[in-house]
Write a structure and sequence with these properties.
By secondary structure, this protein is an all-alpha fold. The chain folds into two domains: about 55 residues; about 80 residues. It is built from five helices and no strands. α1 packs antiparallel against α2, α2 crosses α3 and α3 packs antiparallel against α5. The chain is flat.
Amino acid sequence: MSRAGAFRLELFIIGLGVLALVLIFQPFSIGLYAVGSGLVVLAGLINNLLPLAQPGVKARSVVTVALVVALVFCIALLVSITAAHLYGVFFLNPPDPNTLAGKAQLATPPFYKQAFVWEIAAAAVILALIVTALNKTAR
């Protein structure tokens, strides 16, 4: 990686963290707040790339570490969704079917039947396969 490339990578990493904080603390949209909340976690994980933002570091190693960071993000997301579901199962009262909110909660399929969860799991498997393939071809 050239000196300019390392500087651009460093600016991108720091800029992503600043953007996440701006989105969290803006007072206009709850949707932007949600995006900022996800970005702040991702930016925290991407900060692990800062030591690699040095001249002379191979781009392949930066890509491999970035894929590992994305894999960790997917796994952490799956664990947090599962933990939230288990918290609801064990510590919250069951929904009341006589109320509108209770009917909506009972009509919602469980987390393991949601397409989003399976998409994250598939992304984690694909990332793991790519990292494995990159490590095997590097040897």
